[in-house]
Amino acid sequence: MGAQQEKKPSEERKYRSTQNNTPTSQVQWGRAWEVDWFSLASVLFLLMFAPLIVYYFIMSCDQYQCCLMNPLIDLLTGNRHLSDIWNKTPMLTYRAAGIYALWVTFQVVLYICLPDFCHKFLPGYVGGVQEGAVTPAGIVNKYEINGLQAWIITHVLWFANAYYFHYFSPTIIFDNWIPLMWCANILGYAVSTFAMIKGYFFPTNPKDCKFTGNFFYDYMMGIEFNPQIGKWFDFKLFFNGRPGIVAWTLINLSYAAKQQELYGQVTNSMILVNILQGIYVLDFFWNEAWYLKTIDICHDHFGWYLGWGDCVWLPYLYTLQGLYLVYHPVQLGTANAIGILILGFIGYYIFRMTNHQKDLFRRTNGNCKIWGKKPEYIECSYMSVEGTKYYSKLMTSGFWGWARHFNYTGDLMGSLAYCLACGFEHALPYFYIVYMTILLTHRCIRDEHRCLSKYGKDWKRYTAAVPYRLLPGVF
Ligand code: NDP
Q: Domain containing 152: what range?
């Protein structure tokens, strides 16, 4: 193994590459400049159908007790017309608009006005100002990592209200769920449209913009890489983490409160879903600095996919299990409940350890121990747009030696556990595992395509050393 140092952004010493790769070819990594017909068809499909899918799922719960087939049967048999379903759908209300505006404003204030203090007293927690990865244009952005703090403050206030102040009912989210969905859509479309306009007229880092020339693709996948307003309002970090992910646990708490109100008790399945998803959310905020190095922040541009997805898709579809359990309170047998909990914990352990191993490896530049041994790795290099050459390493030890994306495998096991908690009466709660399987498999392929463009022959050496993607011996 070579002993070259990975260039740290802060100690960047630039020099022109002497390799054959020209800067022009290197621009390709992280960027699909030419939109193939499949990408365009997928983009058009999602733009047209993703909002309908969200509406269909939420409406099915509201009007059909979470049965996905009955609305279709009703429509096909002429039992009901589209207009009947639409007329029964709650519309936007002033109350929901007020709640939503207050919620988003509160999260913006927590994000930009309250520098992180958690890292000052929580051992092991990395917060405060942190650097992101090198962008394709060679820029290193700084971020204020204060998501954990925002999550804690929000939840302390939530519990203070639920148990002490009683300003509003803890079922408030469930009670306004569909009117809030219209508000989330308005914000999702507004922010995506604004991001597109900003990309054309006042981008933050013009060299990191991507124009494919295809309006729909640019709208969906984004033009700007890291749109920002002022020094600290970063669109990707804000919309990815808050308001959607902070809301995730509150939404689940609201569902639990609704069960209590309707049935006089909270079922063990609801508690399981709250605990397992709560761990996932807390993990996200505890590791928010690590999140700066994930694909969302490092490689994706900010468009409708992230803007609308974070405002609508995530809070509405990632919380379907809790919503389902309000309509179908499932009380699991002890053995089943323990089995699901164990599956969830093992999935979480694999997810966390795999991510941790890569993070540790990259942070220490390979000077660490993975499973008690010095990690093995493959040296690789890549170039920024400017032609600056950087060195990096791809680890082949630990979980990263088992498969190239074993973190996704752990994530999928955890996702399956949430779904299983809902029993087998209806398909709706299983949407999540189906969706995550598609998302993560597609992400795997997308990421590997990008890594191949970035590292070239070094990536091929890596895939030869670690031949499987998700499951050793299978895929
Ligand atoms: P990864 O954390 O796996 O990051 C992939 C990147 O890591 C690659 O692009 C490459 O980046 C680097 N890399 C790849 N192989 C190696 C290696 N062997 N050694 C060192 N570095 C390597 O992917 P994501 O960002 O997609 O996922 C992060 C986590 O978030 C995952 O656990 C995933 O399950 C979860 N997730 C959850 C989602 C949800 O909706 N719940 C959605 C998406 C992700 P580089 O260019 O730096 O070399």
A: 33-331
Q: Is 415 in the pocket of ligand 1 (CB under 6 A)?
A: no
Give the whole-angstrom CA distance, residue 382 versus residue 394: 12
Q: 423 lies in a domain?
A: yes
User: What's the 114 CA to ligand 1 centre distance in angstroms?
Assistant: 29
Residue 253 identity: L
Residue whose CA is at the smallest distance from ligand 1 atom 27: 294
For residue 357 the two structure tokens come to: 């191993």
Q: In degrees to the nearest 10, what's the CA dihedral of 220, 225, 227, 232? A: 140
Residue 23 has pLDDT above 50, yes or no: no
What is the 294 CA–ligand 1 centroid distance (Å)?
Answer: 5
Ligand 1 mutation pick, 447, 455, 458, 468, max ligand atoms within 8 A of CB: 447
* 8 A C-beta contact, residue 208 and residue 136: yes
Ligand 1 pocket check for 351: Cβ under 6 Å: yes
DSSP state at residue 376? P
Conformation bin of residue 102: beta by default, left when phi > 0, alpha when psi is -120 to 50: alpha
pLDDT tens for residues 87-110?
999 999 999 999 999 999 999 999
Q: For residue 454, which atom of ligand 1 is closest to its CA?
A: 46
388: enclosing H helix or E strand = none
Residues 338, 277 within the same domain: no
In 14-100, at which residue ranges do the beta strands (DSSP E only) sit? none
Quote the ligand 1 centre to 228 CA distance (angstroms): 23
Name the closest-CA residue to atom 4, ligand 1.
294
Same domain, 339 and 323: no
Residues 98, 427: Cα–Cα separation, whole Å: 34
Nearest CA to ligand 1 atom 40: 436
Amino acid code (one letter) for 276: L
Protein residue whose Cα sits closest to atom 21 of ligand 1: 394
User: How do residues 233-267 score in pLDDT, each as one tens digit?
Assistant: 999 999 998 889 999 999 999 999 999 999 999 99
Residues 208 and 310 in one domain: yes
Residue 471 alpha carbon to ligand 1 centre in Å: 16
Contact by Cβ (8 Å): 208, 224:
yes
Counted domains in the chain? 2
